Amino acid sequence: MMLRRWQRIGMAGGVALVACTVSAWARVTVDPPAVTQDSLKASARDAQKKNPIPPDEGSRATGKQVYVRNCMPCHGATGKGNGPIANRQDKRPMNLTDSKFAKETDGTLFWKISNGHRPMPKFENSLPAESRWNVVNYLRTLIVVPPTTPSTKPK
Question: In this structure, which of 30, 46, 96, 145 has its CB flanked by the most CB atoms within 10 Å?
Fold first, then answer.
């Protein structure tokens, strides 16, 4: 069957239109449901990872430098979630001084930094592992652990 020139052009245009529509549709993504820091769970294997960087002054100083460049804008200078751009977020950044973080393993904190969550970016591809471990060591200096009261023994 011989098609006339205008029919061939029309068919080519239709194919191009379908291709553009499919391409545009493929770019449309549905945002995943909001994830909270509390709902992030590292696997047992990740939680048990040991920090290969000793928590000495040098590591904490390096961790602080990385924190200031990457975390401070949202989490704030003291880690309370009150950084200069914190109010631009849909969800307030976590208060990293919360004592519940004292109970989390270094592996869990490393996993959370590595994997991120909305709106926190994933740092696995932008920061080397050594930098992320140094940040874990620095975060330990921000956590406020409430004092415990000595138990009283009955007389």
Answer: 96
Residues 136, 71 contacting (CB under 8 angstroms):
no
Amino acid code (one letter) for 70: N
Residue 126 pLDDT grade (very low, low, confident, very high; cuts 50, 70, 90): very high
Contact, 52 vs 106, CB < 8 A? no
- Which residue is it, tokens 């904490």? 60
Asked whether the predicted pLDDT for residue 2 surpasses 70, the reply is no
Q: Which amino acid is at 80?
A: K
pLDDT tens, 62-85?
Answer: 999 999 999 999 999 999 999 999
Longest dimension (CA), the chain: 107
